[in-house]
Design a protein that fits this description.
About 65% of the residues lie in helices and about 0% in strands. By secondary structure, the chain is mainly α.
């Protein structure tokens, strides 16, 4: 039980660094997205390098999929205010 709690705390610590950039990305106009991507990709790289649990291909794929889903949120017809859920949900 303690191992699971430690893993959850560690994952949350690393995933929270994406919270603000993901909100900014979800709220951005499409023309403003390209300059935001290097920061987000560097944060994902930092997670990959430093996280004890988010350093697998499967976990990184999940993070990248969730970030790419934010592009879909830029369409007002699809915006249902799930930015935070998409960004910090565990895979």
């Amino acid at each position: 039980m303690q191992d699971g709690s430690y893993q959850a705390q560690s994952n949350l610590k690393f995933l929270l660094v994406l919270k603000d950039p993901c909100h900014e990305l979800a709220d951005a106009h499409p023309k403003d997205i390209p300059p935001m991507l290097p920061k987000i990709l560097n944060l994902i790289r930092m997670i990959w390098v430093n996280s004890e649990f988010y350093n697998t291909k499967e976990r990184l794929t999940g993070i990248l999929r969730k970030v790419s889903a934010l592009f879909h949120l830029n369409n007002p017809a699809n915006n249902n205010n799930n930015n935070e859920k998409i960004c910090v949900a565990q895979t």
